[in-house]
Amino acid sequence: MRVFTTNKRRFVVHLRPEDVTDALRRDGGVDLSQEAVAAALESLAGWGNLRSDPDTSRVTTVEDFYRPRYLYQLSREGEAAERAIEVYEEEIGRRGELQAVALEDVRVRLRALRDLPARPDPAVVHNLLLELMGRLDSLAANASAFMSSLQRTIDLQDVDEEAFLAYKDRLIAYLERFVSELVVKQHDIAATLRAIESQRVAELLALAAGREAADAAPGAGAEAAVSPAAGEKLAVWESRWSGLWSWFTGSRGRPCQADLLRTRARKAIPDLLATISVLQERRAGRSDRSADFRALARWFAQAPTDEDAHRLWRAAFGLATSRHLTAGPHAADDAPPAPVPAATSWLDAPRVEISARLRASGHYARRGAPKRVRDRSGERELLARQVAVEREQVEAARRRLATGRAVRLSELGGLDRQEFALFLRLLGDALAAGPPGADGTIRTRTSDGTLAVALEPVDGLAEIVTADGVLRGPDHVVTIVDLTVPLAPGQQGAAS
């Protein structure tokens, strides 16, 4: 059958048995007798793979005329079967690839279609569309095959670990290069597709369909078949163009195929890194739970006696001798039960009465009157008074410091604990908000936005007397404004 398909590509339609014998001996290295080849050809003709016609071209005698001699050619069914086998073998052996070059070819041909004159040559249009759809089909088929094989690699199915670890860096670089190319080329291709008007697209597709319909072979009713043939060809080209559009352009609800491919390729990079980590851990001999259980199973299988297996069981799972339950309900006048030694068997140990509540909820409530609910209203009132006093002290400190006027630190005088705590917090916020502005002043606000602080250094040393000691440091002019109250006209600058 391969001899017949090879000769058909050379436009040789009929073959004699001796032609097939010579081709097998010359090309395939198979030395068969002509009788064996003739018998095989008859079987193929009987199965429908070949069609046999009487060979009367070289008849010279009456004996030759009555001797069965045939010419063989491929039948439609046999040719279809051979093509199916070729496609099957090609798909099985396809490794797949991400064709960044195909993206460039699609972009170039789309630009050529866009730049065609108003009345283009139908042959040029037809060739451009054929090349465009052919490159798109190749790109889609190879990308699908590559991503399928890549997923099998990530899942560690039928993969050579040593070979994978050897070329992992090139594979990741290959994915990164394709993703970067796809991002750039897809945007350009989508922009070119949108730039070609729908009416222009319909004209170009009609030219290609009309050119193909002109070559349609005549058949039954050929007199009226020209228009239907053109309509069918046009429908096929419209479907192809729709596929091209959906491959590179999408919407919010339906992403295009290029976006899906880019997302999958990006996701494959961290998946590959995770797979590499798993393989490295395997090679490093890192133990996991499944490996531990397998090792434990081997130890159990290798245990010489049952006693050794029991000791291994206790050592592996932390089992010791029997533990007896000693905590249980008992009356107040009864002595608590004596502890049972661990060496005592559970069969010989005294039984323990367990209440149904303990079995149901895991909690045991002793008999007796329930505890009275404690009245905590006094504690709550005390806490409320303490909070009110502290609030009053904080408000007093705010009124004492947040005057809205510029004051030197050396002029603040003595501060109580609440005032000093508020002052330290404001001073820390101002110093942390640096550096100072053009006029040398640091301006900031507290985190709650209620106080504005302006701090300007001046010459001199300041001392602030508190109940806990004296704070000494460089003197500053500080302005604290309470933003929760209306500002006076002179306080606008400090608050800003």
From TrEMBL:
It holds the Pfam family DUF2397. This is TIGR02677 family protein. The lineage of its organism: Bacteria, Bacillati, Actinomycetota, Actinomycetes, Kitasatosporales. InterPro entries: CHP02677. It comes from the Bacteria. It comes from Streptomyces synnematoformans.
